[in-house]
Amino acid sequence: xxxxxxxxxxxxxxxxxxxxxxxxAVSGMQMNYDVSAAAKPSLSTKKVTISLGKQKKSxxxxxxxxxxxxxxxxxxxxxxxxxxxxxxxxxxKAGTAKVTxxxxxxxxxxxxxxxxxxxxxxxxxxNKTKSYTYGREKVTVKLSDYVKNPSPxxxxxxxxxxxKIAANITLQAKKDYKGEITLKEAGTVTYSVNETYKKKTRxxxxxKITVKGATFNKKAFEAQYKxxxxxxxxxxxxxxxxxxxxxxxxxxxxNEDVLVVDGDTVTTVEDGxxxxxxxxxxxxxxxxxxxxxxxKATGVKLSxxxxxxxxxxxxxxxxxxxxxxxxxxxxxxxxxxxxxLNEDICSVNFYPEDExxxxxxxxxxxxxxxxxxxxxxxxxxxxxxxxxxxxDTLITSVKTSTNKLLVNMDEDETVFYFEVLPSYGxxxxxxxxxxxxxxCDATMERDEENFGKGWIYVSGYSFGTTNILIKNxxxxxxxxxxxxxxxxxxxxxxxxxxxxxxxxxxxxxxxYSLKSSGGNYILTIQEGYSAEVIYKxxxxxxxxxxxxxxxxxxxxxxxxxxxxxxxxxx
Length: 570
Known about the structure:
Strand content: over 45%
Largest sheet: 5 strands, mixed
């Protein structure tokens, strides 16, 4: 038996060892599962293109780095690409190479990934020669307009072949490869875009700049003013091109009886011909023949095709305006006239010397036409005019800025906006009423700047609900806005307990009913029943109305936390 017992102990030891190994194995499996479940380190990209030289920051990003691990970067071709221990790439010469990224963690080295790197030399954005035209001014240039893949270790210079027009300029990487060229004189300059890298200079591309001095667009001027009517103001500066602050543009008339110059404005006086000379720095830029003679207006351009006038309380509400331009442009506006077919409906004022404005004034409701004609009596345009008396317009509906209104008893007034329809209607033709004026009061005020709009001011008197009614002049309700007057700090009772219990029908035949209306609670109970109102949260004030056989008793209840108020009917 002793031998058997010792044997059993050895078996227990052996089984214990097996169990321990099993536990460790299971634990090891669990550890392996956790590691594999976590996101493994990886590279954000598989391909990278860089320029020659050392890049400003790493182009290779390792995702899901392991804390405590170290990472190494190696290049497959050091003659093309170098890489630092932080992953900073340096392009040595044009070509391709691979960067292998490895991780070392707890003496175990694993490969994270491989990135293919292409190294490119700086090259032209376009093979075609670019050309630009400017006046004598300062122009901002940037290397990216001409060169792609510039090297951060290279110097880029725009070399001029005509320094009288514009000088050389250097574009530096730390200044975003930007610079400013000063174009000094008229002419053409060719710029070579040169790159100096490792003491070697090469031309990547070229571009041209044509610099123009101030010019006068004689062709456009003559097309506009081939023949000009008398008393017409001309602005020849509108036909100048490529002018700069250094330019001094002046004008001179050969015959001031026909053409008078006053600063930048040239005015035609009487029939005849004159030569207008344009100078820049006392040098003649252009000479233009100007013929002054009567020009017949053959057409007009109008800023409006129809006129609608809505009359109101003030004169401003009865006026509409539009402007006229003559065709051809050389025709004088004083040779154009505006008339009204029916002067009882509207009148008209024309101000040809004041921005070509025509003023139409509504007189009475109706429709008519404005006739625009020349002095020969030829009709050039017809404009329909409609005059509507907003004072007599029936309001059919109202748009309000709110669909319902909450009025706080703590505030003096609550206001909302309204707009009548039709939009040309008159707001004062509306009125406002309150269904229950014991709850609140409402007043209306018209917007003085928009006679079809206004405001409604509401003041709360007691807790409850009612409706604001907006009516038209025929006393029809055209809008209804529900109103709740309450104390915004008030919180309703959480429960009401009725004794004895019943179904709580609203007609109170089975004992009681409870209805809420805004901040008011109406409790209807039969004789022999009692009600307990329990406040679970908050504080506040509410009115409770007890109705017994048609008779009402109002109880003012002041509540606090966990306070109960009992109503007992005997």
